[in-house]
Design goal:
The chain is an alpha/beta fold. It folds into three domains: 271 residues, Rossmann fold, CATH 3.40.50.740; 192 residues, Dimethylsulfoxide Reductase, domain 2; 113 residues, Beta Barrel (Barwin-like endoglucanases). It is built from 23 helices and 28 strands. A hairpin with a 2-residue loop joins β2 and β3. α15 packs antiparallel against α20. The structure holds iron/sulfur cluster (SF4). Iron/sulfur cluster binds next to α1. This is Molybdopterin oxidoreductase family protein. Keywords: 4Fe-4S, Iron, Iron-sulfur, Metal-binding.
């Protein structure tokens, strides 16, 4: 309760972290800001630890409130005025582009940026810099599911139905998803599902907090999910459980898939994956004989060099059972980052323009160029996916300058030591952030930008629901919004068009740019979002309906049918051997988020999860002579990480796990493999070959 006489203000907004975008109220009373949970369809009044503590960063002592520039004499970063910092960035861009061409400057965005920022960043790259090199860290989040969704359904929306549909599924299959740790309030929907008599099946190499709640847990060898999916379809085919009418009327291409999965004998797949035939059969039966069933994938299935094909295998299974478009049924992807969905719709992806349009489509280029007020021929062509872009920095053929907005690739990139050295080789590195991340520490110029509670905007959550992020207060003195940063740079670079700084104005332009595209926001207005619990795209008409559920009658493909693609198992890019005999996999923990730039600085979260660890099975620990809590070294061909051992039967004896939130010696991505999926560009974060050694004291 607010004490009498206190001055108080509130903003109904959403959590700054993950794609669940839990509703919260921010209340400031006499200068003290607190988080209150808010009823919203995704979280239904719940928040996780990260959400509860999100306000702590607003007044954090490490908050950046003045630009920093690297002094050429001392080599150290020092405070600077905004004019000096922006002049230095603009001069650096001009020097690099005049010497090496427009593509010598690159932009790297983030899946936490609002829709308005993601849109403005894509426009800035293509219109002010005229570079083809822009991509973002969402490439490492859900790009494999996005690519699989587009090739099967003709569109990529993480969940093509609202979360509330989960409760209607008689069988729910989670593949490589651990929402009990990554987005705990989502469990309220799973609890509903169970209370209605539904079954939960989890596929995960670890006995996660989510797997512990499952009726059935399949614990395959990392990298064998695709074979497991094909075996499930093999069983459904053999048992005559397919939806023949759906196959005939709503899909194309099943014959090739039928021929492929015919070879995935359950006994063979048991040998490959370690999943018993009986569990494969029980899973296939539970999916096929249920009145309604949903299959959800997340990073465990997707972050592989065969991630697109792995997701496709589960999409094939869903289609063969006639699930997509049926009430309480379907396939979906649990997107990770707060605006992972919107971040990929508005043009910060190397191959896309706003509205999810393809950048090499002449009609799309003409439409977007018309909205931007520039000739279509002036727009650059497609760039390259995130890892390829970062790995080319500073090389003879790669960009020589990089502008980073809302991302920390020094910690989050695969084979991170190599990317760190690429960043050090640049002529110019600019980072816009509100904390001095490990990437910002390397920058020539650091630009302090506003936080989520200090500016308005929109986010698009994992359901494709467009939400309003509402400001509680102004940014502190010395801090600017990302939109103001882009406008300031655009002016200095003599950009041919304006870059508005008012997010509502930017959103109005975004709506026009997206109109007619697959992700059509033309009918989404801020007022309309305010009047409801968000608006689902596509929504082409301000007076027409939005689209909570897709695929009820047709798929957005040329013939209206979903498309099967045959996919086959192949080994991980790096297999175990005598020198590196163990599989290594990475993931998240409840109290930390992504590269940890924010959550590592929150006291309560630091107490809950103070540092990295290496999870290994008691049998493996005994073989290595490692005791619980003892520091160990995980070594791959690319580097090593050091952290205390956490000895636990929750992991397979042939596999070790580490969370990826920490930097320095505990950086898990020093170890990970930079092999990427040929279609999506997704790196193989989830499996590589390592050995574990004791660290002698
Ligand atoms: Fe924030 Fe995600 Fe936690 Fe919800 S589940 S409070 S959106 S981090």
């Amino acid at each position: 309760a607010t004490r009498p006489g206190a001055t108080s203000r509130e903003a109904a907004t959403h959590c700054p972290y993950c794609a669940l975008q839990c509703g919260m109220t921010l209340r400031e009373t006499d200068g003290r800001t607190e988080v209150l949970p808010r009823q919203f369809p995704t979280n239904r009044g719940g928040l996780c630890q990260k959400g509860w503590t999100a306000a702590e960063l607003l007044d954090h002592p490490e908050r950046l409130t003045t630009p920093l520039v690297r002094d050429p004499v001392t080599g150290e970063q020092r405070p600077a005025s905004w004019d000096e910092a922006l002049d230095r960035v603009a001069a650096g861009i001009r020097t690099v582009q005049s010497g090496h061409g427009r593509d010598a400057v690159a932009v790297f965005g983030g899946g936490g940026l609002t829709n308005e920022k993601a849109y403005a960043l894509g426009k800035f790259a293509r219109v002010a810099l005229r570079t083809r090199h822009i991509d973002y860290n969402g490439r490492w989040c859900m790009s494999s599911a996005a690519a699989a969704g587009i090739r099967a359904f003709g569109v990529d929306r993480g969940l093509p139905f609202p979360l509330e549909d989960l409760a209607r599924a008689e069988t729910l299959l989670l593949v490589g998803a651990n929402p009990a740790e990554t987005m705990p309030p989502l469990l309220r929907h799973l609890t509903d599902q169970r209370q209605r008599g539904g079954r939960l099946i989890v596929i995960d190499p670890r006995v996660t907090a989510t797997a512990r709640q499952a009726d059935l847990h399949l614990q395959p060898l990392p990298g064998t999910d695709l074979a497991v999916a094909n075996a499930l379809l093999h069983i459904a085919l053999t048992e005559g459980w397919l939806d023949r009418e759906y196959l005939a009327t709503r899909t194309t291409g099943f014959d090739a898939v039928r021929r492929t999965v015919a070879g995935y004998w359950p006994a063979e797949v048991e040998r490959l994956s370690g999943v018993p035939v009986a569990d494969l059969e029980a899973t296939a039966r539970a999916l096929a004989t249920a009145g309604s069933a949903i299959i959800l994938t997340a990073r465990g299935a997707e972050q592989h060099a065969k991630g697109v094909d792995t997701v496709t295998a589960f999409v094939n299974l869903a289609l063969a059972l006639g699930l997509p478009g049926r009430p309480g049924s379907g396939y979906g992807c649990l997107t990770g980052q707060g605006n992972g969905q919107g971040g990929r719709e508005h043009g910060q992806k190397a191959d896309q323009l706003p509205g999810y349009r393809k950048i090499d489509d002449p009609a799309a280029r003409a439409h977007v160029a018309g909205v931007w007020g520039v000739p279509a021929d002036d727009l650059p062509g497609p760039g390259v996916p995130a890892y390829r872009l970062l790995d080319s920095l500073g090389t003879p053929d790669g960009p020589r300058a990089l502008l980073v907005f809302g991302s920390n690739p020094v910690v989050s990139a695969p084979r991170a030591a190599r990317i760190e050295s690429r960043l050090r080789d640049l002529d110019l590195l600019v980072v816009a952030d509100f904390l001095r991340s490990e990437t910002a520490a390397l920058a020539d110029v650091v630009l302090p930008v506003a936080q989520w509670a200090e500016e308005d905007g929109t986010m698009t959550n994992l359901e494709g629901r467009v939400l309003r992020r509402r400001a509680l207060r102004e940014p502190p003195p010395g801090v600017r919004t990302d939109l103001a940063v882009l406008a300031g740079l655009a002016t200095r670079l003599d950009a041919p068009v304006d870059f508005p700084t008012d997010p509502r104005t930017v959103f109005t332009e975004l709506r026009r740019a997206s109109a007619g595209g697959p992700a059509d926001y033309a009918g989404v207005t801020w007022d309309r979002i305010d009047a409801a619990s968000g608006v689902f795209w596509p929504c082409p008409d301000p007076d027409g309906p939005d689209t909570p559920r897709l695929f009820a009658d047709r798929f957005p493909t040329p013939d209206g049918r979903a498309r099967f693609h045959p996919v086959t198992h192949r080994p991980a890019a790096e297999e175990v051997c005598a020198d590196y005999p163990l599989h290594f996999t990475t993931g998240r923990v409840l109290a930390q988020y992504q590269s940890g730039t924010q959550t590592r600085r929150v006291a309560a979260l630091r107490r809950a999860a103070p540092g990295a660890f290496v999870e290994l099975h008691p049998d493996l620990a005994a073989r290595l002579g490692v005791t619980d809590g003892e520091e160990v070294r995980v070594v791959s061909r690319r580097g090593e990480l050091r952290a205390p051992a956490r000895v636990s039967p929750t992991i397979r004896p042939d596999t070790v796990f580490a969370p990826f939130h920490w930097a320095g010696a505990a950086r898990a991505n020093s170890v990970t493999n930079d092999a990427v999926d040929p279609v999506s560009g997704m790196p193989e974060f989830k499996i590589c070959a390592v050995r574990v050694e004791r660290v002698e004291s």
